[in-house]
Amino acid sequence: MTERSHENHESVPSRQRRRFAGISSRAYEHPADRSALVALRKLSGFDTVFRTLSGLLPERSLRLLFLSDSVRVSDAQFAHLNDMLRDACYILDLQKVPPMYVNQDPQPNAMCIGLDEPIIVVTTGLVELLDEEEMRAVVGHEVGHALSGHAVYRTILLFLTSIALKVAWIPLGNVAIMAIVTALREWFRKSELSADRAGLLVGQDLRASMRGLMKIAGGNHLHEMNVDAFLAQADEYEKGGDLRDSVLKILNLLPRSHPFTTVRAAELKKWSETRDYQRIMDGHYPRRDEDKDTSVTDSFRESAAHYADSVRSSKDPLMKLVGDIAGGAGDLGGKLRDKFTGQGGAGSARKGGATDGSTDSARPQEPRNPEGPRAEGS
Predict the structure, then answer these.
(1) d(CA 199, CA 294)
(2) DSSP code of residue 347
(3) Residues 286 and 26: beta-carbon distance below 8 Å
(4) Count of CB atoms within 10 A of residue 50's CB?
(5) Where are the beta strands (DSSP E) in the chain?
(6) Within a 10 A sphere around the Cβ of 253, how many other Cβ atoms?
(7) pTM for the whole thing?
(8) Burial level of 180, CB count in 10 A (0-12/13-18/19+)?
(9) Are strands 119-123 and 4-5 parallel, antiparallel or unpaired?
(10) Distance between CA 360 and CA 356 in Å, rounded?
(11) How does pLDDT run across 52-74, given as a tens digit for each residue?
């Protein structure tokens, strides 16, 4: 049973979990998310300017709305969620526990919003869908957003999305707003991967995190689902199809604020197997009091290195092609033409050649048939 100290509001998790005293959000942030946030935090007066420009946002109205039309989590209401919230803040050493509300909505969802102070909102659909350990990971996910300072940008995204719908009839105005919304969505998708990691640090139960994501995708039919099979879907999604499928993946993702669920599960599992994660669990992690000394250049370098490694290791046809081009394997125009017309298929996997349609620069080119395309070999 969870012990409580009512004098200093400190909480101890209900089962033995590691606590990360003074942990910086840099410890778990996705490289792309981290580099963007470090750059923003380094800009002199950025927060002041941003809040000034955001003065029209109806934050006070938003808080009153949840206060009047949702249930605020406390010792008297949704006490088990209140325990999880305080546990999560204790583990990540977030000193001020943000208010949390349960909103009537059958759609499973959770968010962390607010400009001056973060507010966590979870829907009844999510509360009813997840068990205790799965929900603990979700609460940790939202506390991770709060610790990273994501709430401000999430609120801006929600506001701009609403504005975009209202001014859709103004061509230039809508284009300008949607450009910002698209950029914010791209950042926010990366921030979700960061928050998933925070949820794992709080719950410290990878299988529970996997189950939660699986239920969000497939509903409350856990006995009909399998985590390993779910992760296999992510692998099939990444490496399946051709360049046309790669383009469709991008188009499908653009309007979303969250990455696809199978992809999130695969990313989280991959991170849980890294040395970085193990070092955090062993107590070796960046501290908040070191944030001021963080180098923007180093952060962008880490982000660039991460993307280069992602391209090299990706099974996606488009990313493999980009890797080939970057490695000097051929010309981009010709490869794109061959991939999209289907001429770079089985015949490209010639003896001693690559299976992705690239040619071996060390092997002499075969003469072309002047009467038409060269016959493809087996």
Answers:
(1) 24
(2) G
(3) yes
(4) 15
(5) 4-5, 10-11, 71-72, 100-103, 110-113, 119-123
(6) 15
(7) 0.70
(8) middle
(9) unpaired
(10) 11
(11) 545 556 666 677 778 788 999 99
Q: For residue 6, what is the DSSP state?
A: T
Residue 341 buriedness (CB in 10 A; 0-12 / 13-18 / 19+): exposed
Which pLDDT tens digit goes with each residue over 97-120? 999 999 999 999 999 988 778 999
Query: Among 316, 309, 301, 185, which residue's Cα sits nearest to residue 238?
Result: 316
Please state, in angstroms and rounded to a whole number, the distance separating the CA atoms of residues 358 and 350. 10
Give dist(CA 269, CA 226) in Å, integer.
Answer: 15
Write out the DSSP string of 54-103. TTTS-HHHHHHHHHHHSEE-SSSSSHHHHHHHHHHHHHTT-SSPPPEEEE
In what order do the strands lie in the sheet containing 100-103?
71-72, 100-103, 119-123, 110-113
Q: Phi/psi zone of residue 316: left (φ > 0), alpha (ψ -120 to 50 degrees), beta?
A: beta
Cβ-based neighbour number of residue 198 at 10 Å = 28
CA 245 to chain centre: 21
Q: What is the secondary structure of 277-319 as a DSSP string? A: HHHHHTT---BGGGGGG--HHHHHHHHHHHHHHHHHH--SHHH
pLDDT of amino acid 300:
58
Task: Give dist(CA 206, CA 212) in Å, integer.
Answer: 10
Torsion of CA 12, 74, 112, 204, to 10 degrees: 30
| Beta bridge mates, 123 | 103
pLDDT band per the 50, 70, 90 thresholds, residue 308: low
Q: Spell out a b/e string for 67-98, using b for 16 or more CB atoms within 10 Å of the CB, else e.
A: eeebeebeeeebeebbbbbbbbbbbbebeebb
Neighbouring CB atoms inside 10 A of 122's CB total 26
The contacts of residue 196 (CB under 8 Å, 6+ apart) are 141, 209, 213, 264, 267, 268
